[in-house]
Amino acid sequence: MALIVQKYGGSSVADTDSITRVARRIVETKKAGNDVAVVVSAMGDTTDDLIDQAMSIDSNPPAREMDMLMTAGERISMSLLAIAIHAAGLHAYSFTGSQAGFLTDAQFGTAHIKAVKPKRVRRALDKGCVAIAAGFQGVNEGGDATTLGRGGSDTSAAALAVALGADICEIYTDVDGIFTADPRIVPTAKRIPSIDYESMLEMASCGSKVLALRCVEYAQRFRMPLHVRSSFSHRVGTLIVPDGVDPASLPNLG
After folding, report:
1. How far is Cα 222 from Cα 47, in angstroms, rounded to an integer?
2. Whose CA, among 42, 57, 61, 81, lies 20 to 30 Å from 128?
3. pLDDT higher than 90, residue 61
């Protein structure tokens, strides 16, 4: 049995139909004999919509209140996903970033994870349930909600995978992995089956938007394998693995 952390981005949970499809995929992974923890982003353009609403009221809103507002999007998607998993026949618990144990510094809007203490997530997994954590957010020492900045949910997923001792962290998006160019712009772009951390860091620092730079850095530091794949297909995506690890040995490649 493997412990798998799956992260689903905004395009994968854009509406209730998408959330239902994602729930089915999670249930399939669980019924295949795996323990599954999930990190989820806000639905579609929810975060941008919340920012627009705040800016329409005040062009210079307080940073603390913006972070409090920003955490609302993931709360919606995580609870709807838990409901969808329940409807599909399994039990799931959803947790905010603070409930999931993401402890950060006090830099609102661009907080860094200082530690992850996922006691409640672990308890849910030990009960045989799916655990769902809100990505992109945490809590500082003062008890205030914080957000991690753009791409923060990717980093949340890698950090949770490390804290749980997961076998792999799967990053689900709307493309089938990492390509030599954006396949939505360059139809002849080729998928990269596997890649090392250093090459992935270079691609991320040069503007590749598939995977957040901090996520790759976190995974590299703790040798956590990543699998970037599409939530719209079951094809194998791109595996980012430490030296000496056979990509074929990793779980849930189907």
Report:
1. 30
2. 42
3. yes
Instruction: Give me 53's structure tokens.
Output: 């609403």
Three-state SS for 44? coil
pLDDT tens-digit series, residues 107-123: 999 999 999 999 999 99
Q: How many residues does the chain have?
A: 254
For residue 84, the surrounding DSSP H or E stretch is: helix 63-87
138 has which bridge partners?
146
Antiparallel, parallel or unpaired: β 168-173 and 130-134: unpaired
CATH superfamily of 3-174+226-234: Acetylglutamate kinase-like (3.40.1160.10)
Distance between CA atoms of residues 233 and 81, nearest Å: 19
Judge if pTM exceeds 0.90. yes
Cα(73)–Cα(49) distance, rounded to whole angstroms?
A: 10
Measure the CA–CA gap between 186 and 200, rounded to whole angstroms: 19
User: Residue 97 CA to chain centroid, in angstroms?
Assistant: 12
> CA 171, CA 89: separation in Å to the nearest integer?
24
∠ CA 197-118-87, nearest 5°, is: 100
Residue with tokens 């957000």: 147
- List for the chain the helix, strand, coil content (%; round to 5): 40, 20, 40
Bridge partners of 36, per DSSP, are 4
Place of tokens 């399939």: 28
Contact 12, 172 (CB under 8 A): yes
On whether the CB atoms of residues 153 and 137 are closer than 8 A, the answer is: no
